[in-house]
Design brief:
The structure holds three protein chains of three kinds. Chain A is α/β, with parallel strands linked by helices. Chain A is built from twelve helices and ten strands. Chain A has two domains: 2-121 and 226-259, D-Maltodextrin-Binding Protein, domain 2; 125-223, D-Maltodextrin-Binding Protein, domain 2, CATH 3.40.190.10. Chain A has helices at 2-6, 8-22, 24-29, 31-40, 54-67, 80-88, 101-109, 158-169, 183-191, 202-207, 238-249, 251-259, and strands at residues 43-50, 71-78, 95-97, 113-123, 125-129, 150-153, 178-180, 197-201, 213-215, 225-232. In chain B, 73% of the residues lie in helices and 0% in strands. By secondary structure, chain B is mainly alpha-helical. In chain B, helix 4 (71-104) packs parallel to helix 8. Chain B has helices at 11-15, 35-58, 64-69, 71-104, 110-122, 125-136, 143-150, 158-183, 187-194, 199-210, 212-227, 231-237, 247-257, 259-287. Chain C is an alpha+beta fold. Chain C is built from nine helices and 18 strands. Chain C has helices at residues 55-63, 105-115, 120-133, 149-161, 179-195, 207-213, 231-236, 241-247, 334-340, and strands at residues 20-28, 31-39, 44-48, 70-75, 78-79, 90-93, 167-171, 199-204, 216-221, 224-229, 250-263, 268-283, 289-291, 302-314, 317-324, 328-333, 347-352, 358-361. In chain C, strand 14 and strand 15 form a beta hairpin. The chains are: A alpha/beta, B mainly alpha, C alpha+beta. The A-B interface holds A 79, 81, 85, 102, 149, 151, 154, 156-157, 176-181, 185, 189, 192-195 and B 130, 133-134, 137-139, 155-156, 234-235, 237-241, 244-245, 249, 252-259.
């Protein structure tokens, strides 16, 4: 948290810039405000982020660039494990936002982080069913029906680990038709109507729009996933990178993230 | 008139190699390969072999015994071999006639058909898997009818794995066999028909044995491709141990949290495929 | 001229119900083949012509490998125009034989009977019989690549005959052989064709093959028949320069005793080869010299008393047809012909040097 505090001024600037750019009249009437901000921050930051953060982070990236002309935020979205492996393998990145503390630990164990990772959002599981919920799924237990084709994430990826945790806590035994390699694949099986239901994140259900219908279940509270974010040691543009992290953690950033279905930490 | 000029080529020579003539092996030994060929050839060899060597160097040999006794590994390995072999069989049954059609029958749009056949080669396998879902999935163009008429659903089944692998591997076989067919002398088929053979009999009893080496090469290529298939398989058939989890899927998922185990699994897959291919090669060499 | 003995009588007015009656019209781009062929069972017809004349196309049309654009094809009274090749009672010996390389000689010959529904054991027995007739029993289990050219040719012939065809087609049957093998194989082929009871059509660009093997020649140039008839007819009355050049060959059959050959008909020919038994003797018309009087100082060992039966001009050459002790053709320059005051009925002496004759076993 110390490092983030160090970037406090930048975060503040970012916030004002964001709000001014959100507000059309303020943004156009006061171009000098953003000009002064860009005088401090410049250059490119590369953010490695979990695939589930794609929509929210792209929105935040655009806002950040608008607030700080001259900066450029480049994203690389992917499975947190693959991203962690690239970082420890020497990939040039400034910020890493992971979908699980476990994958973040790969980076911190390698000593590739600069400062302590901070949890910036949390994600909760939800049942994704076909549109209109034709199979009348109302609880986690309903998924154990043998006639229902359910897909889970493989336990080696965060959403699979969370599902396993929830199922164990509720003492349910669920045999899926497939353990998918990531959450989007699991969701897609329902979108393509090949599976009747999948255990995915709230954010994924939200992102899929009306192609799936979400069913909340109380056991999901036992398996909430923390999303940590950190500055990386290899960063060549720490000020801008810290400013982006501050934006993610700010009230404005949290608004974007929660509207995508994430929970506040 | 003078006596007949001496024959052009002796008949023995003309017939010697069957459809593909064998050239005398002049200059294959005892003469140094020219540098402009030798240097890139060696670089190419190193380029192909180096990653495999690295895999061997970094392999966690100490954890090998545990892996090799794990039932999940055996399950995945057995499934891989069974599915790749079944996919090769499917490719042979459908691909050889398709290759024959492309090589021997003139029809409008043949060029287009040939391009379509090779399309799965360019298609990213994951896209291939999605395309298969849209065609043969529970809600797919054809799969819908399979489901409602016969109660057959292909995704998430071992059959689905075979289909996904055949989809990706068959073009290799078709291309290889078509090439051999084009190189083979079609007059042997004509000779067979003048002896009373129908076109199918001519194909079965004459063409097929003549192009057997090409078919074998194509089958090996298809088998190897099917064995390593990942994208189309996981997309179309999903991942369930013992039913649809082949070795490449197991390797990929192991890579998520235990890269060492993934390397070890890859080596097992490599070793088995090398053993099978080398074994087949020896067989051919001796029966030829 | 070509006094090849006729083992089978040839009937020019030929086929009524039996035999071949065809008019083959095949169009391919600018090329048009239009050839009429008739033959009675037992006839051997040679299609003779330069490369690209359409001989092979005619053969392929007979086999059904090339569709007819127009015309008709009747064999033993049955229409075959629309019959696919596998259903035609036709056997083909291809130029390079096309023996199936993966099958033994025996299985190559058994292939046809098998396709005609004969059981495996019976087909092999029949094939063994054919190989025995071709004197190939020792090579029954050999793959084609182990056979010599001559052996391969005989296997190909056996394979074609094993289906009991009513029409046997041979495409340049001797072209793939070297000169030495060719002589033997030609003699054997002649023997087998003489035994063949149905129609045989062979394609060749070699007049010697045509004259030895066939009893009726059809000369094709640029897709059309330019002349047809017995070898002797054609040699005596060539209608185009190509034919004149092509068939300009004096060919005799006889019995050899050392350097002397007793030609059928009573004359003798002295040759440079030392042979015994049945032989052919051949020499070109250009090797013949004519004299008004019996030659005395000539070194030629061969001289015959003849009478001029015809004169034909070909370019600056005159072809003289002669009858008498030995019927033959001679080529002279117009000057030489004028000096000799040649005319039909004139008596002359014909001489040929032994070194210019060529004898070989029949």
């Amino acid at each position: 948290m110390m490092q983030v505090a160090g970037g406090g001024a930048a975060a503040l600037l970012a916030l004002t810039a964001c709000s001014s750019s959100d507000d059309d009249s303020a943004g156009t009437s006061d171009p000098s405000g953003s000009a002064s901000a860009s005088g401090k921050l410049s250059g490119e930051v590369t953010v490695f982020a979990a695939a589930s953060l794609k929509e929210s982070f792209e929105t935040l990236g655009r806002e950040f660039e608008k607030a700080h002309p001259g900066t450029k935020v480049t994203f690389s979205f992917g499975g947190s494990d693959a991203l962690a492996a690239s970082i420890t393998g020497g990939a040039p990145a400034d910020v890493f936002a992971s979908a699980s503390p476990k994958t973040m630990k790969i980076v911190t164990d390698a000593g590739d982080n600069a400062g302590e990772p901070a949890t910036f959002v949390r994600n909760q599981l939800e049942i994704a069913t076909l549109p209109g919920n034709p199979d009348k799924v109302a609880s986690l237990k309903d998924l154990t029906d043998a006639d229902l084709k359910v897909v889970l994430c493989d336990k080696t990826v965060p959403c699979g680990a969370a599902a396993e945790k929830a199922l164990t806590a509720s003492k349910l035994k669920l045999t899926p038709v497939s353990y998918e390699e990531d959450v989007k694949s699991a969701l897609n099986k329902v979108v393509l109507k090949e599976a009747d239901a999948a255990l995915v994140y709230k954010t994924d259900v939200r992102a899929a729009g009306d192609k799936v219908e979400g069913v909340e279940f109380p056991e999901s509270a036992d398996a909430i996933n923390d999303y940590p974010i950190t500055l990386l040691k290899e960063s060549k543009n720490t000020d801008t990178a810290k400013a982006f992290i501050a934006l993610v953690q700010s009230a404005e950033g949290q608004k974007v993230l929660t509207s995508a279905g994430f929970l506040k930490p | 008139m003078t006596p007949p000029a001496s024959g052009k080529a002796s008949a023995v020579d003309t017939l010697g190699g069957g459809p593909r003539r064998r050239r005398p092996r002049v200059g294959r030994r005892g003469r140094a390969a020219p540098l402009p060929l030798l240097v890139p050839a060696l670089i190419g060899l190193v380029f192909l072999v180096l990653p495999l060597v690295a895999l061997l160097i970094r392999a966690p040999w100490h954890s090998m015994p545990d892996l090799l006794t794990s039932t999940e590994v055996w399950q995945a390995l057995r499934l891989s071999l069974v599915c790749a072999t079944a996919a090769t069989a499917v490719s042979l049954v459908l691909g050889v006639p398709l290759a024959w059609l492309l090589a021997r029958v003139e029809f409008p749009g043949r060029g287009l058909v040939r391009a379509l056949v090779t399309l799965p080669l360019v298609l990213p396998p994951v896209v291939g898997g999605v395309a298969l879902l849209m065609a043969l999935g529970r809600n797919g163009v054809v799969g819908k009818w399979l489901d409602s008429w016969f109660g057959v659903t292909l995704p998430f089944t071992t059959t689905g794995v075979v289909i996904a692998e055949a989809f990706v591997a068959m073009p290799f076989l078709v291309i290889s066999v078509e090439g051999t067919l084009r190189a083979a002398d079609p007059r042997y088929e004509e000779a067979a028909t003048t002896l009373g053979a129908s076109r199918f009999t001519a194909f079965r009893r004459v063409t097929l044995p003549l192009i057997a080496p090409g078919i074998a090469a194509g089958a090996v290529l298809a088998w190897a491709r099917a064995l390593g298939e990942f994208g189309a398989t996981i997309t179309f058939a999903g991942n369930f141990p013992g039913r649809t989890q082949t070795m490449p899927l197991a390797v990929y998922l192991a890579l998520q949290n235990d890269p060492e185990a993934a390397i070890a699994l890859s080596l097992v897959l490599l070793a088995v495929s090398i053993a099978v291919l080398a074994g087949l090669r020896d067989r051919w060499m001796t029966t030829r | 001229m070509t006094d090849i003995e006729k083992t089978i009588p040839y009937d020019v007015e030929a086929p009524s119900a039996g035999g071949l009656d065809a008019r083959l019209v095949v169009e391919r781009g600018s090329f048009r083949l239009d050839v009429a062929l008739t033959a009675a069972p037992g006839d051997v017809i040679a299609l003779l012509g330069p490369n690209g004349a359409g001989k092979t196309t005619a053969l392929r049309a007979l086999a059904g490998l090339v569709p007819l654009t127009d015309g008709h094809l009747r064999l033993d009274g049955a229409e075959l125009d629309r019959t696919p090749p596998e259903s035609r009672p036709v056997g083909v010996v291809f130029q390079d034989y096309l023996l199936f390389p993966h099958l033994t000689a025996l299985d190559n010959v058994a292939f046809g009977p098998r396709c005609h529904g004969v059981g495996k054991a019976e087909a092999r027995a029949q094939a063994a019989g054919w190989l025995e007739r071709m004197d190939l029993t020792d090579h029954a289990s050999a793959k084609p690549r182990r056979l010599s050219g001559g052996q391969a040719q005989r296997v190909a012939l056996a394979r074609a005959l094993a289906t009991h065809p009513r029409l046997l087609l041979l495409d340049e049957p001797l072209a793939a052989l070297d000169a030495r093998t060719r002589l033997d194989v030609r003699a054997q082929l002649r023997h087998h064709l003489a035994d063949f009871e149905a129609v045989a059509v062979l394609v060749t660009h070699d007049p010697l093959d045509a004259m030895v093997l066939a009893d009726h020649l059809v000369v094709i140039e640029e897709g059309r028949v330019v002349q047809r008839g017995t070898p002797a007819d054609i040699a005596r009355h060539p209608r185009t320069d190509y034919i004149a050049h092509l068939v300009g060959l004096n060919l005799y059959r006889g019995e050899a005793e050392g350097h002397t050959v007793h030609v059928d008909g009573g004359s003798t020919v002295t040759t440079s080869e030392d042979l015994t038994g049945p032989v052919f003797v051949a020499f070109p018309p250009s090797a013949v010299t004519l004299h008004r009087d019996r030659p005395t100082g000539s070194s030629a060992r061969n001289f015959w008393r003849c009478e001029v039966s015809g004169l034909e001009t070909h370019g600056d050459q005159i072809r003289v047809a002669l009858v008498g002790e030995l019927p033959l053709a001679a080529d002279l320059t117009t000057v030489a012909a004028a000096e000799l005051a040649l005319h039909a009925g004139a008596e002359v002496w014909a001489t040929v040097k032994a070194t210019q004759t060529h004898a070989y076993p029949a």
